[in-house]
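Retro notes (design track)

What went well: tokenization of the new backbones is finally stable.
What didn't: we kept losing track of which sequence belonged to which structure.
Fix going forward: every design gets posted as structure first, then sequence, in one message. First example under the new rule, 1163 residues:
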């Protein structure tokens, strides 16, 4: 067997950062540097702004000189008017390409008490990989150095990079060694020369390397002038920021930069004047084109809706007053139970209806977005994308319950999204650390080589291959290219082969591991024979899981072992697809290619596999912990100012959905938006939606109504966040609500807040942070306490804040950034950066920090999504509900009754935890609107309705058994109240259907499942929540299984499966008792001497109301028609026996013959 590929240790950092790179490693990127103490230089900066590695002699010489001399060097940086060419540019370019290739071909591991290692992988998966961006791609030549089997360096097309004219093939490590030996080519023994092998940057291109600086102004601090340039981390004055003013940089004082400082933060809330208020005038006062519009509901619908809410509220008040004043003296116990339940129902109804009084619709203008950010202009002459970067998170935990094929197709839909490739990065969090997930992601990256260009070439929708090829109808509709049918046929065949490879991965990994483990057993046995040891005492060889390159998988093994179990494994990071080049890369016209992509950009977004470190004794905090690890990892590697998160079973159904969301955050006032929530849409739901899986009443009704207040809640997936808001910072402008009903508004800014800059935050015991407070001068004790001891993470925060600002292209835009500021290519990845990313996903990183407390996703609740959104609203941020015409994202939902109830149980348990925590809306700050506070209060209270609902569902049966009713007589007043309440309820339902756009059947299904879940899952949630609060019993939930259905299987098969659970007991009991009570009361009334039909009808009507709501539940228990479970026959027999016994217990007909002719009459 050949020796395994070498593992190179990357030195852990000193106290300056938790696993951060050396200070020089981050100097080239604006987000990767960090403050350091005694710095050690490993590179020198050339005139082009690049960094060239120093040789050992240079480093030693520098150390010797430092003792006797103090050198002061003024480096004149290049400007658009002055860009000299120097000989150092070519070696630097080649070195950077080598570093990128090394990063994308290495598997980085590390963690607690271990050195971060880079394992160079020559092979990631068994199948052949051809895309040059992918790890382990084929086609590169071998290094020509003796005794070296490394791959030669490659460019963005996968072609060999020849740093010398003699075209000597050399790998990255050998090239770095050659640089240390005087930059002499090992092939021709000549110094490396400049030629056609230099980097492709045009020295006369003003856009190359162009950086923008905020305008200097009086009284500005460093936090107000965020720049894309790297911060000066060594404490020296940054001359680069102030030396040059030219038309290329559009610096302070020239024609393209108003002297009013329009890019500073606003202090004036009504526009114009003041720092950042847009007081200066632009050279051309173009009409401002908004990116979004708010569309209020039609008055003819919303006005009657509000009126009926008021009417029904007053009717309920009068009715409850009448009920209290007129007790039923014959059955006070029944009257008392009913009045308590009705009081709670009225209170719960009010909490639900009040936030719905101001629903809104919104629209976006994608044409204006393209005009502003991707059209050539004086600030962007080449028309490069000026949109901010986006990091997409996909989380998965168990490949057995979450099929890897589903996750892989989700990744493909993200990679094919209609967004600038160089601005998009995808991160996959595998909390199970499974090799199956790792290789499935590698297969997805390989298939993306053909799928993504195919989608771009033919404008495919949806861009999830499984859904696209499952669409029924004419696939050629709307397609104009003559080669579409041929291309589609080829891609369909490739996708079928891709699915076969994915489905065969478990067997492939098992066979490979068995073969390697058998070989290890043979080697051990051979060793024992050679040493003469007793074979009976052969030590047990660990049954490892092996990767495709013949080395141990550092994550979870199929047979658990120390350091290789689900809760005990190292952190793993693999760049599956390295960052793309900044310029478009078109396919080559080659007959060997399956499809002609000569006019299609074949670049792919960056794809990263991450599995955070887990160790015994460290709480990993489930999904919230995984999301926070992704936030830190992405901040170090790509630092996209916005984050979009998905569950592994949700995919992008609308390729332009990301652009729709960007319209809101890039529009006027977008700096106050913390996140954009999309509605959840599902596929695979039965046509009747028996268990209200679509939840349209909530997503199209409640969430749309909240959009008219402070914004919708965060619901766990399909949400785009502002990274700066996730870090726990306050918005630049907020509104405080005071008064008895919080109806008085007070505008506050981050710089002129009513509370001190470091005042106490209402929601925590820590200090609140604002953009102005974050600076290199910030107290050294405060920063590690909040974010951890990573200098690279610290340096990325102000950059993310600046890049997330909207364009300051009009005086009315506040807190903006200059146009063209984000057209600069992001710096390439290097090994120290990836090593830093491994460190920030270690199990110990969050110790003694505020991650999970006020930074990132919040811990302490199974519904971490609602709590995280609440915290942002509580700090004054706003959110927006984005409903595109075409559904943005699609996912799956459990259609089985038991699975659905368990899902609702988890949500309700989280709500109970919220109610008994400091996240209760009663304790919210003054920055939360009153109606928004009511909505969050309802989130924590709604599970407790189950107690009263359970009692109320038994009241009709108790009334029928006892012969008494909740009122003493069915008089006119009671009937009028009942009629008015029912009519207003129906009217509100019809009007809500009108303004929300949902179907009446969906509204009725929601009402039915409200009762089903309220008498089962919600009731259990209250019990579990109380046990956790009072007894400290922790709650654990199993992961909801996502079924992968084959093409020939019934997609609704799971709907008819009956899975027994204790959650089914309460609804079954309610249904049986009500049926028996109706039969018993009817028989007793018929054979009574003095039949009281009024009370029977009253009790029977309410029992029928309960049974009508339980109809979907009963239908689910029956299973598939013709396959009734045995337990149903048992129940039927019990019911029949019970009714028979009750019939015998009633007086025989002969004894009541005289009363049989009694007529129907009200008492």
């Amino acid at each position: 067997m050949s020796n395994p590929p070498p593992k190179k240790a990357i030195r852990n950092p000193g106290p300056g950062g938790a696993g951060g790179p050396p200070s020089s490693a981050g100097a080239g990127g604006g987000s990767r540097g960090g403050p350091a103490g005694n710095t050690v230089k490993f590179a020198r900066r050339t005139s082009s702004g690049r960094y060239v590695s120093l040789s050992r002699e240079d480093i030693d010489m520098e150390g010797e000189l430092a003792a006797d001399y103090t050198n002061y060097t003024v480096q004149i940086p290049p400007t658009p008017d002055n860009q000299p060419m120097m000989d150092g540019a070519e070696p630097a370019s080649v070195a950077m390409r080598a570093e990128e290739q090394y990063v994308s071909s290495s598997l980085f591991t590390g963690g607690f008490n271990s050195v971060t290692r880079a394992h160079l992988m020559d092979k990631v998966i068994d199948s052949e990989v051809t895309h040059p961006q992918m790890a382990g791609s084929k086609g590169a030549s071998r290094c020509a150095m003796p005794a070296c089997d490394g791959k030669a360096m490659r460019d963005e097309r996968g072609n060999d990079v020849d740093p010398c004219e003699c075209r000597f093939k050399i790998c990255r490590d050998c090239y770095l060694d050659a640089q240390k030996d005087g930059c002499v080519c090992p092939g021709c023994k000549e110094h490396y020369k400049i030629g056609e092998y230099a980097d492709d940057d045009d020295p006369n291109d003003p856009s190359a390397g162009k950086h923008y600086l905020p305008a200097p102004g009086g009284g500005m601090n460093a936090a107000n002038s965020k720049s894309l340039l790297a911060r000066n981390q060594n404490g020296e004055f940054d001359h680069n920021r102030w030396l040059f003013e030219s038309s290329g940089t559009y610096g302070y004082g020239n024609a393209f930069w108003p002297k009013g400082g329009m890019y500073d933060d606003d202090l004036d809330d009504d526009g114009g004047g003041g720092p950042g208020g847009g007081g200066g005038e632009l050279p051309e006062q173009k009409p401002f084109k908004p990116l979004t519009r708010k569309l209020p509901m039609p008055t003819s619908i919303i006005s009657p809706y509000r009126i009926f809410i008021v009417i029904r509220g007053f009717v309920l008040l009068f009715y409850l007053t009448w009920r209290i004043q007129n007790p039923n003296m014959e059955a006070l116990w029944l009257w008392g139970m009913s009045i308590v339940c009705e009081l709670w129902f009225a209170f719960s109804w009010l909490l639900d209806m009040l936030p719905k009084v101001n629903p809104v619709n919104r629209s976006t203008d994608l044409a204006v977005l393209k005009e502003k950010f991707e059209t050539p202009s004086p600030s962007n002459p080449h028309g490069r994308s000026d949109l901010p970067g986006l990091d997409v998170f996909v989380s998965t935990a168990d490949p057995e319950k979450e099929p890897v094929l589903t996750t892989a197709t989700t990744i493909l839909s993200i990679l094919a999204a209609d967004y600038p490739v160089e601005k998009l990065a995808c991160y996959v969090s595998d909390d199970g650390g499974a090799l199956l997930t790792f290789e499935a992601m590698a297969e997805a990256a390989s298939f993306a080589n053909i799928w993504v260009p195919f989608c771009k070439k033919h404008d495919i929708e949806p861009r999830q291959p499984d859904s696209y090829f499952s669409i029924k109808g004419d696939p050629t509709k709307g397609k104009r290219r003559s080669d579409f049918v041929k291309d589609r046929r080829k891609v369909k065949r490739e996708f079928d082969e891709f699915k076969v490879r994915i489905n065969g991965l478990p067997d492939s990994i098992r066979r490979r591991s068995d073969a390697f483990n058998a070989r290890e057993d043979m080697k051990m046995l051979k060793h024992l024979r050679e040493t003469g040891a007793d074979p009976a005492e052969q030590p047990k060889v660990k049954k490892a899981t092996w990767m495709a390159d013949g080395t141990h998988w550092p994550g979870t093994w199929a047979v658990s072992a120390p350091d290789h179990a689900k809760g005990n494994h190292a952190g793993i990071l693999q760049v599956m697809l390295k960052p793309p080049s900044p310029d478009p890369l078109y396919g080559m016209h080659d007959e060997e290619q399956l499809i002609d992509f000569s006019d299609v950009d074949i670049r792919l977004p960056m794809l990263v596999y991450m599995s955070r470190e887990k160790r015994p004794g460290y709480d990993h905090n489930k999904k919230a912990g995984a999301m926070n690890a992704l936030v830190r990892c992405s901040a170090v590697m790509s630092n996209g100012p916005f984050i979009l998160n998905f569950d592994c079973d949700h995919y992008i159904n609308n390729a332009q959905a990301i652009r729709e969301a960007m319209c809101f955050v890039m529009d006027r006032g977008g700096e106050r938006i913390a996140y954009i929530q999309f509605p959840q849409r599902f596929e695979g739901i039965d046509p009747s939606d028996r268990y209200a899986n679509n939840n349209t009443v909530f997503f199209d009704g409640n969430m749309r109504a909240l959009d008219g207040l402070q914004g919708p809640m965060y619901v766990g997936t399909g949400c785009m966040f502002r990274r700066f808001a996730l870090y726990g910072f306050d918005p630049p402008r907020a509104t405080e609500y005071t008064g008895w009903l919080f109806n008085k508004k007070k505008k506050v800014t981050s710089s002129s807040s009513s509370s001190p800059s470091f005042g106490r935050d209402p929601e925590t015991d820590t200090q609140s942070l604002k953009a102005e407070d974050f600076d290199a001068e910030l107290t050294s004790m405060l920063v590690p306490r909040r974010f951890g001891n990573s200098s690279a993470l610290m340096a990325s925060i102000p950059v993310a804040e600046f890049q997330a600002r909207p364009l300051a292209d009009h005086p009315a835009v506040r807190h903006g950034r200059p146009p063209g500021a984000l057209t600069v290519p992001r710096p390439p990845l290097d090994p120290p950066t990836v090593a830093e990313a491994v460190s920030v996903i270690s199990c110990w990183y969050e110790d003694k920090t505020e991650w999970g407390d006020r930074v990132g996703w919040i811990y302490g609740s199974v519904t971490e999504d609602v709590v995280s959104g609440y915290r942002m609203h509580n700090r004054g941020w706003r959110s927006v509900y984005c409903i595109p015409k075409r559904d943005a994202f699609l996912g799956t939902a459990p259609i089985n009754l038991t699975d659905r109830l368990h899902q609702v149980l988890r949500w309700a348990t989280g709500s109970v935890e919220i109610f008994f925590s400091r996240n209760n809306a009663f304790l919210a700050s003054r920055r939360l609107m009153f109606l928004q506070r009511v909505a969050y209060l309802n989130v924590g209270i709604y599970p407790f309705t189950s107690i009263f609902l359970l009692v109320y569902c038994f009241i009709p049966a108790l009334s029928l058994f006892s012969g008494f009713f909740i009122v003493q007589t069915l008089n006119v007043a009671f009937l009028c109240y009942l009629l008015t309440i029912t009519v207003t309820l129906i009217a509100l339902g019809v009007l809500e259907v009108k303004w929300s756009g949902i179907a009446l059947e969906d509204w009725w299904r929601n009402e039915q499942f409200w009762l089903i879940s309220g008498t089962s899952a919600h009731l259990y949630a209250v019990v579990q929540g109380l046990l956790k609060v009072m007894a400290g019993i922790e709650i654990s939930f199993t992961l909801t299984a996502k079924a992968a259905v084959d093409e020939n299987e019934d997609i609704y098969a799971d709907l008819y499966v009956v899975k027994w659970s204790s959650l089914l007991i309460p609804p079954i009991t309610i249904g049986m008792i009500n049926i028996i009570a109706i039969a018993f009361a009817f028989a007793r009334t018929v054979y009574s001497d003095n039949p009281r039909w009024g009370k029977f009808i009253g009790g029977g009507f309410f029992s029928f109301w309960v049974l009508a709501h339980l109809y979907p539940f009963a239908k689910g228990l029956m299973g598939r028609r013709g396959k009734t479970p045995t337990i149903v026959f048992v129940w039927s027999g019990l019911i029949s026996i019970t009714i028979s016994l009750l019939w015998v217990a009633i007086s025989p007909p002969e004894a009541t013959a005289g009363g049989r002719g009694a007529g129907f009459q009200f008492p």
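Added context from the reviewer: The CA atoms of residues 168 and 187 lie 6 Å apart.
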